[in-house]
Specification:
The complex is a heterodimer of chains A (298) and B (229). Chain A has 298 residues and is α+β, with helices and mostly antiparallel strands. Chain A is built from 8 helices and 15 strands. Helices cover 26% and strands 31% of the residues of chain A. Chain A starts with a strand and ends with a strand. Helix content of chain B is 10%, strand content 23%. Chain B contains 2 helices and 11 strands; from the N terminus they run βαβββββββββαβ. The chains are: A alpha+beta (298), B mainly beta (229). Chains A and B meet through loops of A and loops of B.
Chain lengths: 298, 229
């Protein structure tokens, strides 16, 4: 069992509230997943800039001087925003690839949570309310976001095993369920050049979609293809730079509820997660159909 | 009438259910209203008295589970497993119901005025279920007895591995499950439907429905299949 929440803001005046709305939804889903929590926030797009979110188990040591060390290594300015065990590094797009390589050299124990124009991922082990508080998730704004509360079934309870998983630029995936063919699929994806950080089944689903999109599929086509290739139980919420998608396996035993108003599209594993959203009583509320691709884009 | 209101913003779920489960005498309230349900789980479960409970909002998992005698109304939508294992009484959902509504129910009447999703009436054992909208896939899987009435359409694999429950569908059936077949609608079935439609406030004529039931081919082991095991 896990909990998923997601919010796609249609009314720009709600963007500053994204973090506070998602945090409330996330904490409501604590009893579906009390061991870890994570959130992907799609924030402001600054032209020609890339954000790399990194995580450290020893932030005092490893984040000290990281911006200047990285800037020196790639000969370009890097800015850094530290948020507890995470830091968001920003640099111009043309040196972002070099930055990833340099990070592995100068701080080999840092873990990359996400990279892209607007995505930031924060995740840690602990109760959702504690994870939300340490990163001050409620203060964050943005156009869309996805949160996950984890009750581990397939792999260890670690920071890297928490969701969301990001395997491509501005992409992320959260999963409630379990995949049974993830080992064979992982081997195929490794042959296609995908890199894995964990033994987690959900990371394989994320990498599968990234791989499909690298081959030229759009998100909808990649999700459609996954219905053929992924074996197991899943409700996925998938984030991209432009929006988010929802997909349930054909058996659809993992719960999902959606709500839409003129202001937002919201996803919750349970209706409980949605009850405090503005205008929920008048919202269109429905259960997404099995084996049906849904996505919303700005 | 003696209406009592329970506000879940101030009363815990356990307190709510304990109150509703208390054996009533004539002097006590028989009409209850529950407010601020906010999708909570297990609201009004295990009731065993002819009381009337109205929940003014949507509910989470297992609302009205194991109901006996009571009439429970949900003025919203219901989460998974509504009226699971109901024994008797009536449960009426104004909105939609999530998966496995009325699962394993032994008796009573479950009315869903919106749609029900997958596995509606799975393993039903005597309950009557009337869905005004559509139902999802795998509904009435291994259903043993009782009646499932659907005014709209049914999803894939309706009545898979069915025993003796009767299924009545007015709209389209996407596919029938193993051993489920269309059957003749006889006068006694029209009478059953007429009664259920009237009791559930459904605006439909019995003649518009088709009946589905078990072909009874899976009841016994076929020796010809022995090599498959």
């Amino acid at each position: 069992m896990c909990g998923i929440v997601g919010l796609f803001i249609k009314d720009p005046s709600l963007r500053p509230e994204l973090g506070s709305m998602l945090t409330d939804m996330l904490i409501t889903m604590s009893d579906r997943g009390p061991d870890s929590a994570g959130i992907a926030i799609y924030g402001v797009d600054t032209d020609n800039r890339t954000k790399i979110t990194v995580q450290s188990n020893a932030p005092e040591v490893e984040f000290a001087g990281l911006d200047s060390d990285l800037g020196d290594a790639i000969s370009g300015p890097v800015s850094m925003r530290i948020n507890d065990t995470h830091a968001v590094l920003e640099m111009s797009d043309d040196i972002a690839a070099a930055a990833r390589e340099a990070l592995a050299e100068i701080r080999p124990s840092l873990r990359i949570m996400s990279a892209g124009d607007i995505i930031e991922i924060y995740k840690e082990v602990g109760l959702p309310k504690d994870v939300a508080a340490r990163f001050q998730l409620s203060q964050m704004g943005g156009s869309h976001g996805i949160g996950h509360t984890r009750m581990a079934t397939e792999s260890a309870v670690t920071t890297m095993g928490a969701h969301p998983f990001s395997t491509g630029p501005d992409q992320c995936l959260v999963h409630n369920g379990s995949l049974s063919n993830h080992n064979s699929l992982r081997r195929k994806l490794i042959r296609n050049g995908m890199v894995f950080e964990t033994d987690n089944d959900s990371e394989v689903a994320a990498a599968y979609l990234t791989d499909k999109m690298r081959q030229g599929c759009n998100l909808g086509e990649a999700m459609e293809a996954s219905l053929q290739d992924l074996d197991g139980f899943f409700t996925f919420v998938i984030g991209t730079k432009a929006g988010f998608g929802v997909l349930r396996d054909p058996i659809a035993c993992k719960p999902a509820v959606m709500a839409e108003t003129a202001q937002y599209v919201a996803f919750g594993s349970e209706y409980r997660a949605l009850v405090n959203l503005p205008g929920i009583d008048a919202a269109r509320v429905w259960e997404p159909e099995p084996a049906t691709v849904y996505f919303w884009e700005h | 009438m003696n209406l009592q209101i329970i506000d879940m913003a101030h009363v815990s779920l356990r307190e709510l259910n304990t109150t509703l489960q208390k054996p009533g005498d004539a002097s006590e309230a028989t009409n209850w209203e529950v407010i601020n349900s906010k999708g909570s789980h297990a609201i009004a479960v295990g009731l065993d008295a002819p009381i009337d409970v109205t929940i003014k909002g949507s509910t989470g998992y297992y609302c009205a589970g194991m109901n006996k005698q009571a009439t429970i109304r949900v003025k919203g939508s219901a989460g998974p497993g509504v009226a699971e294992n109901m024994m008797s009484g009536t449960v009426i959902i104004d909105g939609d119901a999530s998966q496995y509504a009325g699962a394993t129910g032994h008796g009573g009447l479950l009315v869903i005025k919106g749609n029900a999703s997958s596995r509606c009436g799975i393993s039903m054992k005597g309950i009557d279920i009337v869905v005004h909208g559509n139902i999802g896939h795998m509904s009435a899987f291994m259903a043993q007895s009782g009646n499932l009435v659907v005014l709209g359409d049914a999803g894939d694999a309706l009545g898979d591995s069915l025993y003796e429950a009767r299924l009545f569908v007015r709209g389209k059936v996407k596919s029938l499950g193993a051993d489920c077949v269309e059957k003749e609608m006889r006068p006694e079935h029209i009478a059953i439907l007429k009664d259920l439609l009237a009791r559930s406030g459904a605006d439909a004529k019995p003649e518009e429905f088709k009946r589905y039931g078990s072909a009874r081919q899976l009841y016994n082991f076929h020796i010809d299949n022995a090599s498959n095991y």
